[in-house]
Design goal:
By secondary structure, the chain is mainly alpha-helical.
Length: 353
C-alpha cells in the first residue's frame, strides 16, 4: 500500500513498500503521485522492474541518452570528450527512433551507413558499445523495459560482414635515424616557439602521454628522489583521482630529470606547469615535422610505445615497467615486449651486473 506525505514545500512524496521493494518519488500534485503509485504497484505485482518517474516519459532513444547524461552528472561522473562526441552523434542519428524501433534490422542499417560514411570497424564497434551502455543503463537504473538482444544480434551480423572489429595493434617505432632527424630539425627550427624537441625526448624518457606531459606541474616534481606525480592519469575505470608517482629514470638514452632542469633554465619558471603548452599544438608540430622529413606513419603517441619498449630493453620486468607507464592490466604491456635483437646484449649485461 502506498503512503503519501505532504512536504513543507507543498509537494507530495509517494512511498511504496511492496513485495520487498521500496520506491519513493516526489510530485507537485497528489493526483500525479497517486497515479504513479498505482501504476508502479501493478508493475511490481507483474514482477516487472520498477520504473522511475524520469523514465515514464522516455519513449525515444534520445530520451534514454538524456537520462544517461543526467544520471552521470548527478553522481559527479564526468563524461569524457570521445564519449560525449559519440553520444551526440548517436542522438542525431538514432534519437528520433522509438525504443521499440531499435530492432536488429534498423541497427544493422545504421552500422552499414556508418561504414559508408568512412567509419572503420573499431569506430562502429565503439558506437554499438555506447548504444548498449545507454540501453543497459535505462533498464538497470530506471526499469525501462527493453531488450538488448537485437543489438547483440546486429553486432554479430556486422562483425561477420567485417564492419565491426578490433583495431590492429600498432608496433611502429621510430628508427634511431628517424628520431635523430626529427630532433635535429625541431631544435634547428627558428620558427618553432614550443620546445617540441625537448618534449619528444621527455616522452621517450618517461613513456608519458602527450596530454600528461603538458599537464604536470613543478609542485609534482621532486628532484631529490627523482620522482614525478602524474595527476588524473588515464584509466578506463576511473576518470578522476587516478594519481600516480613515477620514477624518472635514465635508461632510455635521455635523462628525464636533466630535461626538466633544462626546461627550467630556458623558461626561468619554477611554478605552474613544467611544459605550459597546448598538447594539440605539440602533436601538430610533431606531425608536420615528420611530413617535412618524409617520415611516414609515425604518431606522437608512438613515442610512448618507444619509451615503453626501451624500458623492456633495459631489462625491466612487466610489473616494473607498469610502475612507469601506469598500465593496470599487464596483458596490455605484452605487446611492447618485442625487443630489438641487438638489445639482448644490453639485457644480458644488465642481468650479469
Amino acid at each position: 500500500m502506498a503512503t503519501f506525505t505532504k512536504l513543507k514545500s507543498g509537494s507530495w512524496r509517494a512511498q511504496i513498500r511492496r513485495k520487498g521493494q521500496y520506491v519513493s518519488e516526489t510530485f507537485l500534485r497528489r493526483k500525479d503521485a497517486e497515479e504513479w503509485a498505482l501504476d508502479l504497484e501493478r508493475r511490481i505485482d507483474r514482477q516487472e522492474p520498477a520504473v522511475t518517474r524520469k523514465s515514464r516519459d522516455a519513449k525515444r532513444f534520445r530520451d534514454l541518452v538524456a537520462l544517461h547524461r543526467q544520471d552521470m552528472a548527478e553522481v559527479g561522473v564526468r563524461i569524457g570528450r570521445s564519449k560525449d562526441f559519440c553520444l551526440t552523434a548517436l542522438d542525431e542519428a538514432l534519437g528520433a527512433l522509438k525504443i521499440t524501433e531499435l530492432d536488429r534490422e534498423r541497427l544493422i542499417k545504421y552500422g552499414r551507413n556508418r561504414a559508408k560514411e568512412g567509419a572503420g570497424p573499431v569506430t562502429v564497434s565503439m558506437d554499438f558499445g555506447y548504444i548498449k551502455t545507454v540501453l543497459s543503463h535505462a533498464a538497470a537504473v530506471h526499469g525501462v523495459i527493453l531488450s538488448t538482444e537485437p543489438l547483440d544480434l546486429a553486432r554479430i551480423a556486422l562483425k561477420r560482414l567485417g564492419l565491426i572489429g578490433k583495431g590492429k595493434e600498432r608496433d611502429r617505432r621510430p628508427t634511431l635515424d628517424e628520431l635523430d632527424r626529427i630532433l635535429t630539425a625541431l631544435d634547428e627550427n627558428p620558427r618553432q616557439s614550443i620546445p617540441v624537441g625537448r618534449i619528444v625526448r621527455f616522452a621517450v624518457a618517461t613513456a608519458m602521454r602527450q596530454e600528461e606531459i603538458c599537464r604536470v606541474e613543478w609542485r609534482d616534481f621532486d628532484p631529490r628522489t627523482r620522482m614525478l606525480l602524474i595527476r588524473d592519469r588515464k584509466d578506463p575505470r576511473r576518470k578522476d583521482g587516478n594519481h600516480q608517482r613515477i620514477p624518472l629514470l635514465d635508461v632510455s638514452g635521455y635523462d628525464a630529470c636533466e630535461i626538466i632542469e633544462e626546461q627550467a633554465r630556458c623558461s626561468s619558471a619554477r611554478e605552474g606547469r613544467i611544459f605550459p603548452y597546448n598538447g594539440r599544438s605539440v602533436g601538430t608540430a610533431f606531425r608536420r615535422q615528420c611530413q617535412d622529413l618524409n617520415i611516414e606513419d609515425l604518431h606522437f603517441h608512438d613515442l610512448r610505445h618507444e619509451g615503453t619498449s626501451r624500458l623492456f630493453e633495459a631489462g625491466f620486468t612487466i610489473e616494473q615497467v607498469a610502475l612507469v607507464t601506469g598500465h593496470k592490466d599487464w596483458k596490455m604491456l605484452r605487446r611492447y615486449t618485442h625487443l630489438k635483437p641487438e638489445a639482448l646484449h644490453t639485457v644480458r649485461a644488465a642481468r650479469a651486473a
